[in-house]
TrEMBL record:
Keywords: Signal. GO terms for cellular component: extracellular space. This is Pheromone binding protein 3. Coiled coil: none annotated.
Length: 182
């Protein structure tokens, strides 16, 4: 059963992107390291957001954050089209399958700005990361997301899209190291 809680990647956008992005990508049968096929290309974030209508009582508790995240993902996907396979890969590995493609990185920037994780001038809020992307990884509840995200906030990239992607990449990799390695 899909569990929606307040998703990643990024991406991932995954800060990990926690359970929220994992839930929104669970329906993807995409191989983690492969590029999406033509059939999977048609499964975009908006379609995934539209399929999140059925919720259990426990999922309703996080409904505000989930709604905000899914709305942001849907709105950003209208401008920066991204396949669910990309988000799934970001959540699982911390990286996009094709790191030369700027569109998914700009999608991440858009989502982070719309959810209040990033300001328009590129400042990041570790506390907001925890509110938008709580969840678990490796079967363990991630209760220290602000501490994991804090070292990732000082970004030097000049491109806002690249900066957002590197931020989320840093957070997800820290989560993977902390929760899947130990």
């Amino acid at each position: 059963m899909l569990r929606v809680s307040a998703v990643i990647l990024l991406a991932s956008f995954a800060l990990s992107l926690g359970r929220s992005l994992a839930a929104s990508t669970a329906s993807s049968s995409q191989d983690k390291s492969a590029k999406p096929t033509d059939e999977e290309d048609s499964k975009d974030v908006k379609a995934s957001a539209d399929s999140q209508d059925d919720k259990t009582a426990s999922e309703e508790a996080a409904s505000g954050e989930v709604t905000e995240l899914m709305t942001a993902m849907s709105e950003c996907n209208e401008t920066f089209r991204i396949e669910m396979g990309y988000i799934h890969t970001l959540h699982e590995t911390g990286s996009f399958p094709d790191e030369t493609d700027r569109t998914p990185k700009c999608f991440v920037r858009c989502v982070l700005e719309k959810t209040g994780i990033a300001s328009e001038d590129g400042q990041y809020s570790p506390e907001q990361v925890a509110l938008v992307f709580p969840g678990e990884r490796g079967g363990r509840v991630m209760d220290d997301i602000p501490e994991l995200a804090k070292p990732c906030t000082d970004r030097k990239e000049t491109c806002k899209c690249e900066r957002a992607y590197k931020f989320i990449n840093c957070v997800i990799e820290a989560e993977i190291k902390e929760y899947e390695s130990s």
